[in-house]
Design brief:
Helices cover 14% and strands 38% of the residues. By secondary structure, the protein is mostly beta strands. 20% of the residues are buried.
């Protein structure tokens, strides 16, 4: 495995200037413009390229869509991923846990937990509290005019206890503001809908088929 040397300072006095922005695949990403610092000698640490990509939020789905980000590291299957598939709609699905029992079907009512992130890995919303671990599952009807189409495609075929991770393009995402799932609270709802025109990553666990 190729390794890259990275420098880690021990102590420093730093002044961080305001960030600048770069355009990536049509989205603006904040990057540090410059650092003015006075630092002692630095200690080199060997770090794998994959670790660095994960650190900055480029997960396996992002690397699947943009393989150039991971070059020249050979393609690798992420541990725990059973299979990866790309649907005609552009949705990319990774099966993590298969689950048991009957599969969820069109027009079923299901109970799920989910975590929603931007394609760069930044957190948007979740039914599971990040600190306490307490969950507030939501019930979703697998009906196209009530749920975002991409999420419906993810849930159909899942079994109880199953887990999937998927990237949903905006064309099958929040095309209308009334599509579920949307948080009840104003702040999380506004945050989620502000990213409606971006691809979103959903990690979903199917709890019940009602």
């Amino acid at each position: 495995m190729e390794v890259l040397p990275f420098q880690t300072p021990t102590k420093s006095r730093c002044t961080l200037k305001s960030p600048s922005y770069m355009d990536y695949d049509g989205h603006k990403i904040a990057v540090t413009k410059s650092l003015q610092r006075r630092c002692p000698p630095l200690r080199a640490i060997k770090t794998t390229r994959r670790m660095v990509l994960e650190l900055v939020g480029l997960n396996s789905i992002s690397l699947y869509l943009y393989p150039g980000l991971a070059a020249p590291v050979p393609e690798m299957k992420e541990p725990g991923v059973i299979q990866t598939q790309k649907l005609a709609s552009g949705v990319v699905i990774q099966d993590i846990v298969e689950g048991q029992g009957p599969e969820a079907q069109e027009r079923d009512l299901v109970e799920v937990n989910y975590v929603c992130r931007r394609a760069n890995g930044y957190f948007v919303h979740s039914t599971v509290d990040q600190f306490s671990g307490e969950s507030r599952p939501v019930m979703l009807p697998l009906v196209e005019d009530q749920i975002i189409k991409g999420l419906k495609e993810i849930l159909i075929g899942m079994r109880i206890g199953g887990k999937r991770r998927a990237l949903i393009p905006p064309s099958v995402g929040y095309t209308k503001e009334n599509l579920k799932p949307v948080p009840d609270e104003f702040g999380p709802r506004r945050s989620l809908l502000s990213h409606a025109k971006e691809p979103l990553i959903f990690e979903v666990q199917l709890l019940k088929i009602l």
